[in-house]
Design a protein that fits this description.
276 residues; alpha+beta; Signal recognition particle alu RNA binding heterodimer, srp9/1; 2,3-Dihydroxybiphenyl 1,2-Dioxygenase, domain 1; 2 domains; 7 helices; methyltransferase activity; PhnB-like; Glyoxalase superfamily enzyme, possibly 3-demethylubiquinone-9 3-methyltransferase
């Protein structure tokens, strides 16, 4: 049985208002669960988490969200709404990889790529998290993907295209893969960037039991770093949250569990359940 991976977005404040805004833009979107500073949502059927407050991490383009659209009209509609209060990084138009494409940063600082393509090419997943390896991690995309292939029991490469010329020849121009049923994309940046992965966007792994939490935590932090409250970072700078799949139920049923969680690095399910 596979267990879900999904992205988490950290907001400085007003996470619920921001998430409601996204829900108004994408069909098949809704807030599913709320608990204090976190909300679980889905945008176009794809699970996300919203986190309110905490350290003021700044989003950047290192993790963006590719929205697969099957018509120009659909792209135009998303673009018009998402760019309100934001700005274009790559204007809508014709590009070598798509007949109609654009990249924007929204009013909350998060990045979206709108791509004219086919949902059948991305396993019918409307929104695809896209990782860009740059800065000190430039050129490490394929090494990272090979690590993720060993990390996730359910992993499949669905294509890797490399730069065939220029400064970054041999590095990954575009890759698509699935990890525990989530479709993701990844690339090495095609130009020099002055940013790296930010904790403003993390990836959550829901685990069925303590053994699975231990497995992911130990594997990711072996050459990465530990942080507080289920957070850790792999050797490529990507932030992960390793949580039990029933965390929301635990926090709802035990009002003291959140206080205990804040004191932990790796989460210990039994301690969360027994905290008084």
């Amino acid at each position: 049985m596979t267990h879900s991976i999904y992205p988490a977005l950290r907001f400085k404040k007003n996470a619920k208002t921001a998430l409601e805004w996204y829900c108004s833009i994408f069909p098949n979107s809704q807030i599913i669960q709320e608990h204090d500073t976190a909300l679980k949502v889905q945008f176009a059927g794809v699970p996300f988490m919203g986190i309110n407050g905490g350290p003021p991490f700044t989003p950047n383009p290192s993790i963006s969200f590719m929205v697969i659209c099957e018509s120009r009209t659909e792209i135009d509609e998303y673009w018009k709404q998402l760019i309100d209060g934001g700005f274009a990084r790559m204007e809508l138009g014709l590009y070598p990889w798509s007949n109609y494409y654009g990249w924007l940063q929204d009013q909350h600082g998060f990045n979206w790529q709108l791509y004219l393509g086919q949902l059948s090419d991305v396993n019918q997943q409307k929104i695809v998290p896209t990782l860009m390896y740059c800065g000190s991690y430039q050129g490490q995309c394929l090494t990272a993907l090979n690590f993720y292939q060993t990390l996730f029991k359910h992993f499949q490469f669905q294509g890797v295209l490399k730069y065939s010329e220029g400064e970054y020849i041999g590095q990954v121009k575009h890759a698509q893969f699935t990890a525990n049923d989530l479709t993701l994309m990844a690339m090495d940046s095609g130009i020099q960037q002055n940013f790296e992965f930010s904790e403003a966007v993390s990836l959550v792994i829901e685990c069925k039991d303590q053994a699975e939490i231990d497995y992911y935590w130990n594997a990711i932090t072996l050459h990465g770093t530990e942080d507080q409250c289920s957070w850790c970072k792999d050797q490529f700078g990507v932030s992960w949250q390793i949580v039990p799949q029933n965390l929301w139920e635990i926090l709802t049923n035990n009002p003291h569990a959140l206080t205990a969680l804040f004191k932990m690095k790796k989460l210990i399910i039994q301690d969360l359940l027994q905290t008084k």
